[in-house]
Amino acid sequence: MTAEGAGIQDDRDRSPVSGADVCVVGAGPAGSLVADRLAAAGYEVVVLEAGPRFDDGDRQRRMERAIRPYYDRPDVWDGGGERDAYESTGEAFYPLNHARAKGVGGATLHWQGMVMRLHEADFASGSERGVGPDWPIDYADLRQYYAEAEGELGVAGADDNPFGPPREEPFPMPAFPPSYSDSLFAPACEELGIAMHSVPNARNSEPYDGRSQCVGYGTCQPVCPSGAKYDGSVHAERAQARGGAAGEGTATVIDRAPVQHLAHTPERIEAAVYATPDGEEHRQEADAFVLAAGGVETPRLLLLSESETYPDGLANASGAVGRYFMDHLFAGVGGRLGEPTRQNHVGFLTSESHQFYDDADADVGPFKLEFFNYAGPSPVELALTGEDWGDELLGRLREAYGDHVAVGGLVEQLPRPENRIGLHPERTDDHGNPVPQIEWSIGDRARRTIERANEVQREILETLGAEITWTVGPADTGPAYHHMGTTRMGTDPAESVVDPTLRTHDLENCWIASSSVFPTGGAMNPTLTIAALALKAADHIEAALG
Amino acid sequence: MQLTRRDAAAALAALGSGGAVALAAREWRGTGGRAGGAEDDGAGPDGGAGSDDDPDLADDRQVRDAMVAVAEVVYPSEVAGIEAFVEGFLAGRLEREGHAEGLRRAVADLDRLAEAWYDGPVAALSPADRDSLLRETGARTAEEVPDPAHVPAADPTAAERIRYYVLNDLLLALYASPTGGELVGIENPQGHAGGTDSYQRGPGR
User: Fold this and answer.
1) Does B71 touch chain A if contact means CB atoms closer than 8 Å?
2) Which residue among A313, A514, A528, B193 sits deepest, i.e. has the most Cβ atoms within 10 Å of its Cβ?
3) ipTM
4) Residue B73: beta bridge partners?
5) Active site residue A354
6) From CA A181, how far away is CA A21, in angstroms rounded?
7) What is the pTM of this model?
8) Helix/strand/coil percentages in chain A, nearest 5
9) Which among A63, A215, A346 has the least Cβ separation from residue B199?
């Protein structure tokens, strides 16, 4: 671990691979899934990852960082510093580094692990809700990929969501049973006519795919020491192990190799130019390129790759690269019940509700409700921050812990061109490249949706009999760190960056696998859709390469 | 409430040290001595740096005696079995590069202040004097900061170092263990791999 003083110099070979068919930029879940699929299909794949390959043996130490007050959230995965510098200059501050993790596995190292499918109407916001664009593909186009993605990630779930989109296949693992606090919410929700249902989790409820079942460390976000929570390193490792079976290709993951720019002709990308820790630069050539660096670094790389032919950045004839930046917004209400609610035993959710999701229209967007299993303070974290010890400290902990409840939720934010990722005109990163400049604002529809979610949340807590002690509403909402929209998918090259096969309109050998292609965001956590799109992209690349 | 071997193993996990290996018996040797404790056996430090090498780093025995003595003050009065519990998790801490050096330096700082103000190491003081000493070091109000041997960018005062390695290490170990959690009403606290049953259970079941 870098911050532990050992340093991360190593003598790993980071030279380019000759004869590569495919070069993938980014070893998060999207890039790793694409790499694994294409290596399995017989191609020679190289993955360039800006961050390091983390040692699984360090995860307990990272958990300690997650608990101790000295460490900020980015410290858990060695984030921050000049490498990750950025500027937030919009109406609302965007805390970009809070949940980023650069390294093999990407942001799934840090994520919560909720994996819902988008609803059918999310693919047709313009037609169904009268606002925003329709996707150029619909739920039926992704349905099989969703099922495959659930198998790849390992999803524990139950087909008990009366509002969810249609599905035929069962989840790979049974859902985690409801929590005790879910059982406290149930009568209140029943009285209000709100259906509670299980949460699909990319977290093993039983041993799966060679990984442990959840053992309850309770620090899922930002780190799972047991490996029961899926992260992209699973597929990065699997891809690298390919080559043994007949017809398989191989994959090489080069870590600590940030791509500086994409060398290109007017029609094609020729090479990804990447830096290595020894200060050298290298060119990785390939027949096909897949950009899978997330909704911030992907548009940034395209903008950094400007040329005489493309003075506004690569694949940006539409001017849409970096624009339409969206996130999901948090809405929540919490309080105290005056009786034990058994919070903070685990770090994941077991019940949610999509009851109001499809009421969405032009004025109020879709939102989902989450019944917390970690409302209120974690006693161990609280114990480390006071000015007391002994019996006095124990008394404080007993007073603070035990009867908290909360209902959270995510709210859709519409795509707006003024919300964007650009290049900062002055500030540069550790390689001298302009850092991302984020211009972000909330939007009136999202504010109204948060208010509506708060209304429902308050109703639930009041019916439950809780004393409400906090509300996160339109004035103090924050992002869920789901970076979407910045290389949007569409059929019109004048208005979008990639086509329905995830290939850029402008360059014939460049595909994008990321939430950056989402035309709209819905209000569902995006990673299952990212994974489904990655599998779809792999199919298209395979068809194109022949 | 009795702390157990299981609690020490849980604390080791929460503290980021390998559980079973580290929990194996460690011989608490060194040149230090705890009031009322066993006599020095004359052997050198058992692994890692010690006072033979650097007077600013406490040896194993000094660390063990100081941490047990402080735990007796900062743990709630209803906790029993402190000595074995602290020895158990310390064995792992002292094997962890970087952290071990910070811990040794923090204990050396604490004992130096104890000698200057109370004429003896913290382990030789009465519980009331240990409590006063901890307050007077400033550790009670300081924020925790690790040692640069452990986190290179850090630059702690003595109080901040004592807060990190002595006070907060002890509190983290206790409240991330099942018994420590149960004192507060949570038998599977954050940091403890306590399984996925307890979150489903109601109180008192």
Assistant:
1) no
2) A514
3) 0.94
4) none
5) no
6) 52
7) 0.95
8) 30, 20, 50
9) A346
